[in-house]
Amino acid sequence: MTFYCRNANIILKRYEKYEDGDKMSIKKIAQMAGVSPATVSRVLNNPDYHCSDPQKRKRIWDAAMELDYVPNENARNLKRGKSTESEKTYYINVLMTRTEENQTDPFFAEVLHVIETEIHKQFCILSKVWYMSVFSDERQCRLSNLDKLVDDLFEEAGGKSDGLIVIGKCNKEALRKLNKRFKNVVSVNRNSTRREVDEVTCDGRKIASLAVEYLISLGHREIGYVGESHNEARYRGYMDTLVKHDIEPTVGYIYETKQTEAEGYEIMQKILASDEIPTGIYCANDITAIGMLKALAKSRNRYFNISIISSDDIEQAQYASPMLTTVALPKEEMGRFAVYLLMDRIEGKHKSVVTLELQGQLMKRESCMNLNDSNVNDYYI
Fold first, then answer.
1. Residue 1 sits in which domain range?
2. DSSP label at 230?
């Protein structure tokens, strides 16, 4: 049904009414979060906006979810002279599988910020955000009652679940159960789901290959790996690239870690204390690599350099010293396309499983050097 009115003042008054309602909602969120309405608007509309207190963003989105906040589409349509016939408002949930809430990986946090903002722009409601690393841990999944875990999530959503976005690697059986229960599911990941659900991916195997190829181009052949190795695409990419160049993988150069800054620091301390040290290291994610650089900061008196390259390109990467060489993942596109793909499936516009693969980009910075360059390098943050 199309809305017609000869009196522009009527349109303006209706728009102002809707706009006032939207402003009241923003004021309520601001009161609940203890921030200004301007800060609420910036956080809801800009994934790159940085709050002075990182917890402010969380409080704002927690309040928005509690209020089931959605921008007033009628006000915008009236302003643009479009139809006022309202469309269905969808409730979207997000499951973070690689991190617990109190131990956030900046990469996944940055992807989540993009998704939050895009859900807002699509006039949908962000209903729940869950942090459950159990879903990415193969051993824990084998020991857990996956049916109960999934059912509990669905019950917690309280019927407000038109779609689910899974951010991070997820156990295959758990993903199948999530897809069966939530029906409309999209994965955002470095590891392919192998067509279990719609997915937006930046292939971890290719990411690792690009990184290791760069180390090899600099003359490195003693190349280590820091990260998860079980059922991990980046580890397979690391191994494949070494074999491709007739480099025998060295078991002692492979360091299993949960990929946190603290563990990166500890791993580098172990490397520095060992008898055999790789000249180059591919670290599976940036935050772990930054921990490694911090450990190197306390070893400036060492007579050797270690080239470190990682993947993600989180914000801290370009501010580390030396600036971290990494493979940038297109976080903005990954987040936006995940929401687009989910909306398309919810509205029944596609039935087949869709895989959208994006490419990583090598960011050459200061933490990698040619093997022939034997000058001592100071590592510090």
1. 1-42
2. T
